[in-house]
Amino acid sequence: MAKLPKVPVVIVGMGWVGGIIAAELTKAGIQVVGLERGKSRSTADYFMDHDELRYARRFELMQDLSKETITFRNTESMRALPMRSYGSFLLGDGLGGAGSHWNGQTHRFLPYDFEIHSKTVERYGKGKIPEGMQLQDWGITYDEIEPYYDKFEQMAGISGESEANPMLGKRSNPFPTPPMKKTPILQRFEEASKKLGYHPYMIPSANLSENYKNPDGVSRAACQYCGFCERFGCEYGAKADPVVTVIPTAMATGKLEVRTFSNVTEILHDGKKATGVVYINTVTGEEVTQPADVVILGSFVLNNVRLLLNSKLGTPYDRKSGRGTIGRNYAYQVNSGHAVGFYDDEEFSTFMGAGALGMEFDDFNGDNFDHTDLKFLHGAGIRISQNGLRPIENNPAPQGTPTWGKKWKETTLKYANRVLTVATQGASLPWKHHYLDLDPTYKDIYGKPLLRITFDFEDQDRELTKFLAGKAGEVMKEMGPSHVEIKDKLDPYNIVPYQSTHNTGGVIMGSDPETSAVNSYLQMWEAENVFVVGASAFPHNSGYNPTDTVGALAYRAAEGIQKYLKQGGMLA
Amino acid sequence: MPGLKLGNSRKPARSKEPDESRRKFLKASGMTLGGLVVGSVFGGVLTDSLEKKHAPAPAPASSKPEASLQDALMFFNQEQFKMTEAAVERIYPEDENGPGAKALGVAFFIDHQLAGPWGYNARDYMMGPFVQAQATQGEQSRLKRNEMFTLGLEGLKSYCQQKYQKAFTELEAQQQDEVLTAMEKGDKFPMRGVTSSSFFKMLRNLTIEGVYADPLYGGNRNMNGWKMRKFPGNQMSYAQQITKEGLVQIQPKSLQAHMSE
């Protein structure tokens, strides 16, 4: 095995987290090695990108599951089986990671989210939290994380309405660019929801509304609303992506070395501190040891957890005793509730769009409404999106229409441009029996155990879905369609249909080492020179997209790492 | 093609110069960027097109769809191809709106997909053990998709032989629909290695993909799948149109348009 000279900092995974931390550290003069298991990428790779089959159906940008996947079961009484092909969520791969294939919706979480346990108890009493729900404060408040949100938003050039949403925490600065275009479809949603007394706002967008030069001096061009965003790369570089923002900033310092095709399989440690990582050079097959003073885990949620478990670093979560933290509080997103409006007399240009083009209101998100008489906590954002409906995946027909043949063809052609949807994106709260551990049977191509997910929807989620879908339905009806269909039932969690890539938890943050794996600087309680950063640190998932919070945590961690390199020891 | 009134299939209309929208975009944004420009894949195109100034648009590629030299088989034998072609035509039949799956080349699309990485599950986890799954856990077959498809066609063939003493292709359209309905329901429709309902699902998904994927994959001939639903395909920008009321109709473009830019 080759052993390389020691470096100050090694980062596992070069997506948003890796890119942001690399940029911040290298700007401060610190030498960084970034290990990326996938290939390099640039906008030049997206020349043939408007290809629904290749990118949306065959998952061009995603991790190759033949090498590595996860296993899944709903409950402990089931045998977990591998996710053999893509469905419920999509794992990124290559330079930029999931930051290359996201839609760009850039929400902040609510002040309530960061202190969810305290605030719930304060308003409703302890009895409101159901048995088994493992609600926890984050060990950081909204006011403390706010400056880091701002940093991420300034860097990415987030387009939004700074004053429009009274339900959010305070902003220290306005959005750096104005909101996206308010299309006729969005205006219709806005009018309907205002009429019902709600507070709609333009979804904060990482698809630039205008040309923008960020504080690091990186310039990007405005979004063209081409309708190929999620699951696609942006050929214009208009969508904020690590590859067109933080990675070039870090590279320009001359202090970042990115090694692609370098798949980290183990963190080396002595039980107290990490000494480096082992990775496989997937081109040559060679195993390489890279010693480092600080090890940063910046890969996707599931890989962060798996790498810790496979490296035997940190105490694995034991569901029976409730002890241990690695794998604790896996959560997801509750997205099923929605309302579809069919318009017999109108057509819309729904094929145009951008990943983050939409409007939303938060009147039923977080604790913005009274839950006293409701059988669930938290809530969902209610929204309309105009992301660009593509023809393979969008063939709407009213219920009762045959699913193939002449009638189906006729009906789906008729409604191809005549359907609008008001959707909900709901919070997913943590439970004792939802967790991540190593699968006892299935292995990756290197013979390392796969990560096992044990997760299902609960009554909390079914109640939330029913309530929120009803609200979405009211808005949809107000938007004047000929016919509305409301989906308010939530089936057991199924890994087959795509739902969301907002997986969270497993290496959660907090102020108590008994119930959290990392502190508010994302520093591991059990290994002070290891920082585990990403949505893996969320103690629960909110009713929003996670990337803004992931970005904020990465900036927070970058600050912590610099402090640690100077002074050492636990930072919080 | 009855009913399809969207231009002559032999000479696709080119409403604009192929790279006009792109040029407009570059003019609007690319030129004015300062500092470290990382954005556009079309940076090179910009200088090219400025230097060439009014370079003539390249001649449109010939697009006569029916007798293309590409219309040959990578995976199916003749019988499998014909069965597939007949079945997909029932799923997406020709009607007053325009061509069905057959004329759109969907059977060629499926043949090519089964011969390629997707058909061979190249990027799927295929290590064992293979265990019977719960409904929420997804496909757990040890077979590759193209093996499942072949066995599905075999099951279809024997079902028709047994019930009608005929090949599927020889049945009346209504009988074919009955067969497909039974297959979808999984109602006494024996197959090896795949249930008839999951085979049907695969067939249906492939049909929709073949109708609406970019023509580069062998289906959606002459973009007629897109034209029927007024989908403009591969456009570089809707920035000027997206604020307009109603449906904006735009002459579609496929990815082939990029090859001449």
From TrEMBL, chain A:
Residues 443-554 form the Glucose-methanol-choline oxidoreductase C-terminal domain. The keyword Transmembrane helix does not apply. SUPFAM superfamilies: FAD-linked reductases, C-terminal domain, FAD/NAD(P)-binding domain. It comes from the Bacteria. Pfam families: GMC_oxred_C. Keywords: FAD, Flavoprotein, Oxidoreductase. One of its GO terms (molecular function) is oxidoreductase activity, acting on CH-OH group of donors. Belongs to the GMC oxidoreductase family. This is GMC family oxidoreductase. It comes from Paenibacillus albilobatus.
UniProtKB/TrEMBL annotation, chain B:
Residues 14-23 have a biased composition (Basic and acidic residues). It holds the Pfam family Gluconate_2-dh3. It comes from the Bacteria. Residues 1-23 are annotated as: Disordered. This is Oxidoreductase.
